[in-house]
Write a sequence for this structure.
């Protein structure tokens, strides 16, 4: 009797939207982690996955593991995504309004991740990248070079809340390593400043508390807890014992 095959289209990369759909896995047992991971990365619901055979579920999960294994958190000051060139806005160039908007969103960094990126990155209006190479993937490319060098080579458009919201919608599909790498760079820079600010008697308590937010956000944004979802050897052995011998691994 012919078996129904599971048809699954996996994405090329792990995006912000996938990251947010996956959510926290810490409270789940290992099999539920697999199910939640599959539902975040495919069009299937958890109810759908519950009807699959175990070996079909594990084959899909292994494909997703390969995607997650390629995630490398790094900071890219300049990248081109969907045909648009974006540049990171350093803290030294931010207006008070920009920083205030960013600070509010840092109170819940995971929920606001694409909005945070839309503040940190804006369309480049002027650049001089002739001597710097690009690293190209099918869905995105980024400029290679040290941040302190690249920051001097471009200007971005003026901050605008309507354009920010439009970018946020686009950035839902941004590869997660670009988002977390940029935020970690920004938060680290703030933490360096914090040592000076918290020892200054001229700073208000409100300012001190605002900068403490970045440390809290940094603790929340742990990519390893999302991508490290490998099953224990005991669970794999158990699942393998339940797999149908009629399906090749």
């Amino acid at each position: 009797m012919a078996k129904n095959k599971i048809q699954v289209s996996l994405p090329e990369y792990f995006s912000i939207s996938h990251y947010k759909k996956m959510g926290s896995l810490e409270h789940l047992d290992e099999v539920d982690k697999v199910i939640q991971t599959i539902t975040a990365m495919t069009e299937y619901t958890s109810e759908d996955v519950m009807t699959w055979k175990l070996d079909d579920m594990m084959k899909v999960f292994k494909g997703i593991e390969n995607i997650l294994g390629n995630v490398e958190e790094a900071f890219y000051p300049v990248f081109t995504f969907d045909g648009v060139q974006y540049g990171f806005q350093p803290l030294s160039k931010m207006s008070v309004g920009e920083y205030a908007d960013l600070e509010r969103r840092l109170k819940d960094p995971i929920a606001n991740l694409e909005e945070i990126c839309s503040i940190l990155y804006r369309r480049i209006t002027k650049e001089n990248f002739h001597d710097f190479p690009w690293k190209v993937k099918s869905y995105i490319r980024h400029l290679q070079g040290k941040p302190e060098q690249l920051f001097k080579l471009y200007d971005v458009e003026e901050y605008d809340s309507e354009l920010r919201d439009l970018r946020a919608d686009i950035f839902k599909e941004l590869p997660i390593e670009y988002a977390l790498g940029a935020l970690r760079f920004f938060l680290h820079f703030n933490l360096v400043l914090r040592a000076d600010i918290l020892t200054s008697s001229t700073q208000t308590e409100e300012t001190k508390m605002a900068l403490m937010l970045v440390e809290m956000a940094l603790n929340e944004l742990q990519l390893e807890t999302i991508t490290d979802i490998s099953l224990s050897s005991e669970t794999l052995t158990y699942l393998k014992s339940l797999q149908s011998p009629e399906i090749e691994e």
